[in-house]
Amino acid sequence: MTVEEYNQCVRQYADNVYRFVLKNIRDEDKAADIVQDAYEKMWRHHKNVDPAKGKSYLFSTAYHVLIDHTRREKHSVRMEEADLKEHVHNQQYTDLQEVLHQALEKLPEDQKMVVMMRDYEGYNYQEIGEITGLSESQVKVYIYRARVFLRKYIGKMEVVV
User: Fold this and answer.
1) Which range marks the domain in which residue 127 is found?
2) CATH code: domain of residue 64
3) How far apart are CA 50 and CA 106, in angstroms?
4) Distance CA 46, CA 44 (A)
5) What is the pLDDT of residue 76?
6) What is the CATH number of the domain that holds 112?
7) Which family is this sequence assigned to (predicted)?
8) Which of 67, 91, 115 is the endpoint of a domain?
9) Are residues 10 and 70 in the same domain?
10) Nearest to 66 by CA among 110, 119, 125
């Protein structure tokens, strides 16, 4: 990949990568950092990247940086979060989107990523497999399991609304 092809890749996919990361962590600053790290890694290896596979390489790199970041965050507990957990109470929700976000947070990271790539970003199974490094059949299994969990978690619409 030449410098010109790298710059074209940045212009063409920056918004999509940012949206993908932001939907997963919902923190604009962290999402920008993760995207920057992904582009930095791509730049370090740009001579070995096939320009035709630039999008796949970029999303795969962003996905792996996101997973690493998420794993590091899970190991560190913030005081604010620890204090809030003591005061949490159950309440009935009427906002389906909020319930869906809560359900997505309960999914394992791999299932969450693939279902968001498929249902939010519109990638096909093959593209998701290329980005995550999973086989196409494993992607289908993860999406199926995630959707089954989401159906059970959310329950019937009459209960939520």
Assistant:
1) 93-160
2) 1.10.1740.10
3) 36
4) 6
5) 53
6) 1.10.10.10
7) Belongs to the sigma-70 factor family. ECF subfamily.
8) 91
9) yes
10) 110
Q: SS in 3 state form for the chain?
A: CCHHHHHHHHHHHHHHHHHHHHHHHCCHHHHHHHHHHHHHHHHHCHHHCCHHHHHHHHHHHHHHHHHHHHHHHHHCCCHHHHHHHHCCCCCCCCCHHHHHHHHHHHCCHHHHHHHHHHHCCCCCHHHHHHHHCCCHHHHHHHHHHHHHHHHHHHCCHHHHC
Look at residue 75 in the predicted model and tell me its pLDDT. 59
8-43: pLDDT as tens digits: 888 888 888 888 888 888 788 888 888 888 888 888
Domain boundary among 33, 62, 91: 91
**pLDDT attached to residue 31:** 87
Amino acid letter, 49: V
Task: Write down the pLDDT at residue 130.
Answer: 86
pLDDT at 7 over 70: yes
The closest alpha carbon to 133, from 146, 121, 144, 117, belongs to 117
In this structure, are 101 and 86 located in the same domain? no
Query: Is this prediction's pTM over 0.85?
Result: no
**Domain co-membership, 78 together with 105:** no
- The reply to whether 4 and 34 lie within a common domain is yes
